[in-house]
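Bumping with the actual sequence this time:
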Amino acid sequence: MKFHRAYRASLVATAVVATLAGCSGGSGGASGGGLEKTNIVIDAFPAIDSAGLFIAEQEGLFKKQGLNVTIDLASTSQAAIDGQEKGTYDITSADYVTYIDNALQDKAQLRIIDESSFLQPNVLTLLVKKGSAVQSVPQLKDKVVSVNAPDDIGTLLIDSLLSDNGVSLSSVKFNNDVAFPAVGQELASGHVAAAFAPEPFVSLDGMLGGTQVLADLDQGGSANFPIQGVAVTQSWAKANPNTLTAFQRAYAQGQEIADTDRPAVEAAIEKFLGLTPIAAALVSLPDFPIGVDATRLQRIVDAMVRFGLLPQKDAGFKISSIIDNG
């Protein structure tokens, strides 16, 4: 459910004040002074979940904070985090499942600094080819379903959907390496029976007439599920507290615009995702929250344990431990 504009505006002000206070005390002790870095490279997964980030850059909100931001588009969330660990990227915007997996396997010492999105209707779906014999979720038994990477947000949401519909998880095989632009082709060829796809690919493939939605993933146990966030490494946060504060201030403003101004979202995704105006006008949008809600994000950990993406030994992990000022 969307917040009214006036209430959202008050949340932005509150979030910015909290960010300023928290980062000055918890991110290295620098409460004043200039920016430690002014040139920032961000690697973001190319989906509408990053609309707030795109808007902040397009409308000059980062520049107003003294930041020169370059946004690269990641091939996968894991690729973004790998580049972050190597120092190629200062900040990443990726799915939470991958962030959590890296943190718990000690692949990356991360801090989640902001949320990007949580599910709303028709944003993440399972697609089938038009006229497919598969017309219901239970018919996926013994079928192949594609995701773009193994054991990430797509796998988790599909597991939840299958469980809600009484389908044994072991009865469905995943093809773990189907890029979203190739979903329509893979379905048409019969290599997969169904495919995980986010917006804008849901709308794009539908416009081409070759696919139809089998199931909206915003339902049952995954309704309003958190999808994508923003993170830095722990060391980067400690070394750049003022830069981090400036980024968060501009990012909160971008999120506010994304959640209340659809034309601004359309303009941003036309630029960054290469959509035509018609396609941009058709896409369904997630919710674009401000700040970080630890209770909401804890759902991800619980679901990962439930569906075997994390071992039982990690059931007690509190995501607040890797949230900025959590």
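The tokens above came from a reply further down the thread. The radius of gyration is 19 Å.
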